[in-house]
Amino acid sequence: MEKIVDIIEAMAHEKNISLDSAVDAFKEALIKTAKRCTTFSSHFEANVNMAKKDYSVEQIITVAKDNDPRFQTAKDSVITLEDAHEQYGADLEIGDELRSDFILEEHGRTASFNLFKELQYHIQRQVEADLFEKYRDKVGSVMIGTVNRIDDQDNTFIEIGELKGILSQRNRIKGEKFKRGDTVKALLRYVSIDPEMGMFLELTRTAPKFLEKLMAKEVPEIEDESVLIMSSARIPGQRAKLALKTDYPNIDPIGAAVGVKGTRINAVSSELKGENIDCVEYSVIPEVFITRALAPAIIQSLKVIPGKEKKAIANITSDQKAKAIGKSGINIRLASMLTGYAIELNEIEGITDRTGESSGNIPAEIEKTTNTDALADLFK
Fold it and tell me: What is the pTM of this model?
């Protein structure tokens, strides 16, 4: 017996799992082996005492009513009250358990062989379970690994700790290519188990969350949450927008994110293959937030349309319209993603000077917002 318990300790060390996990696997192996030696409908309980280097297996039969469903599904684990009285005495009641020692050694070499196989199987399942829990806790964090290979479908396989990560083409920034031996940073999306591939990590470099995590690494104020990222939007490899907020009057959220001479934000942009990153200050007032999100365009006025569909109409002069839309519509798309509002541009006459004043008139049919309910959020 001591030898078997020593094997458990050695396997725990070899497989890099906790001793408790190895003991649990051993208990499962004992129970499964006992069932193989009897019937799979029997009920067993295993106990392991690591201090004494001893273990025991007990077969349990429960006294049950005649109509108990276990007589159909696990008949060897139950006994009727009448049979229990006849075989074991009249003092037994419904629910009592009859326990008897089950000695595996009495079942010969076949039991020993089955125990070893079951132990290997359950140890491996425990290793996988521990790995799954370990990496599931890391979902949403940045992982760093080395490129191992690239398959015919341009999927990049990355070695990360004990598991392999997969960075598919759709999760890479457009035009981004890696070669074997490259070091790659990516966001862990989820842990998956595939019948053919086994357990693997799905990675991405295109999610807005990846941008947020990179910013937290470069900006201490974001890491310690004195500056908060309220929302983010990306068109990977081209442009991104971040909405920043702080409750500390002595901190400039935009300046903190950008850094001296742009060092902080340029470091993140470089990791994202030159992606331009715009930082805007968040506001609980939708009109203010949307106006800031449409920068560098200067908006003359903006009205949020009440209703379930979040929609806003922005009045803008012709010379600012191209800036608001951006190349291929990228600016207005990012502004919509950042704020959560569908933004419609309404062109008005006039030209906007550098102060933001327009020589044109705002159409009468588009009224300025007079509802100040959102202002109450500022004083919560």
Answer: 0.73
